[in-house]
Amino acid sequence: MAQILAPSVQWQMRITKNSSYSRDASSMSSKMWSSLFLKQSKKLTARSSAKYRLLAVKSEHGTINRMEDLLNLDVTPYTDKIIAEYIWIGGTGLDVRSKSRTISKPVEHPSELPKWNYDGSSTGQAPGEDSEVIIYPQAIFKDPFRGGNNILVVCDAYTPAGEPIPTNKRHKAAQIFSDPKVVAEVPWFGIEQEYTLLQTDVKWPLGWPVGGYPGPQGPYYCAAGADKSFGRDISDAHYKACLYAGINISGTNGEVMPGQWEFQVGPSVGIEAGDHIWCARYLLERITEQAGVVLTLDPKPIEGDWNGAGCHTNYSTKSTREEGGFEVIKKAILNLSLRHKEHISAYGEGNERRLTGKHETASINTFSWGVANRGCSIRVGRDTEKEGKGYLEDRRPASNMDPYVVTALLAETTLLWEPTLEAEALAAQKLAMKV
């Protein structure tokens, strides 16, 4: 990763195995280390001595950090207890928060875990005089940072009386996905999460000259090379962390704007899609934290002739995947056209800066659909048209959308909501004219 020239200490933990200093250091016993440090404490004035410099943690190839041994310590042989990292969504609706607790033994299902609470006044979700918010465990993933039997727990938030708080979008989504009509259709989602990596101090895209711009878009999409690809190590580390955790990640790629990347999750069924995206976002936040890089899900991080960042959502149902499914897709598109404004209002903050009709987007004010057209609101693939069945891609959601909201709204609009006959006829006429 050519642009991360000075990683944080957390990423400077390893010395190459061929380093002679590494061999010398690893041969030192704990007693030897203690003895050396005691000698140094008696000679505080000799700070510039060669011996003192030897014990400084720098080396030619990296930094010795003795905490690494503890961070990587496998406690499984010594205790049945595990660490559960409870994750929830904060007051902005986009920030992920978490804290840890000890569980007496490994668990397999969220129902085995206790509810917990946090200070909602510190996350913008409750007043100071009544600040307790209760989190309910909803989905479990393996913890790639702690390893062993330790877990990540995706939660949603409620008042002490058991009412979902306003920022709890999972609760309504779960209701929609448990509707018998929706369950029968087995809705599949494939979500393409784009994101941008920023340099820490200047908040400017990774790989860009500070205060300046790289060459125009063109050579960066799915590219390789130190002058074209910035942040690959982060993308790859995130990919493996997701696989370890049990997230249904299906791929990654570098995006059109330099410093921008994408990962895809799915196909996932129903509420699972939102759980997996939120956990994947949490992992990405943790990995960029360790790398000393800032993650942003802003839908248009750089104004001008640069692509924005979306969260394209691929969607299909049992009926669209069966013979005659293309006609079912057309009916779904008709419903989506009638609720365009409602969907746009729920598809992410700042999306108007992205959906301009340029840079592979449709205008935010106009609904459109087409086959293989990335400038439409809804794209249908060539294979779907050819096979007469398949899926549609909603290209309107912004990168900062809430996956619970978007997936539930797609299911509701296409499976539960019925337009009036007059509205349906008028919409069909308009869409026919555009196509």
Q: Layout of helices and strands, plus pairs?
A:
Elements: H1 20-27, H2 30-42, H3 50-55, H4 67-71, E1 82-89, E2 96-103, E3 116-119, E4 132-142, E5 151-158, H5 170-177, H6 180-185, E6 188-199, H7 232-245, E7 249-254, E8 260-269, H8 272-291, E9 293-296, E10 311-316, H9 318-321, H10 325-338, H11 340-345, E11 369-371, E12 378-380, H12 382-387, E13 392-394, H13 403-416, H14 421-434
Parallel strand pairs: 1-5, 11-12
Antiparallel strand pairs: 1-2, 3-4, 4-5, 6-8, 6-9, 6-10, 7-8, 10-13, 12-13
Helix pairs in contact: 5-13, 7-8, 10-13, 10-14
Enzyme class: ligase
Main location: plastid
Protein name: Glutamine synthetase
Structure description:
It is a single chain. By secondary structure, the chain is an alpha+beta fold. The chain folds into 3 domains: 9-71, no CATH class; 82-167, Roll (Ubiquitin-like (UB roll)); 180-434, 2-Layer Sandwich (Creatine Kinase, Chain A, domain 2), CATH 3.30.590.10. Helix content is 32%, strand content 20%. It contains 14 helices and 13 strands. It has helices spanning 20-27, 30-42, 50-55, 67-71, 170-177, 180-185, 232-245, 272-291, 318-321, 325-338, 340-345, 382-387, 403-416, 421-434, and strands at residues 82-89, 96-103, 116-119, 132-142, 151-158, 188-199, 249-254, 260-269, 293-296, 311-316, 369-371, 378-380, 392-394. Helix 5 (170-177) packs parallel to helix 13 and helix 10 packs across helix 14. The model is unreliable at 1-56 and 58-62 (pLDDT under 50).
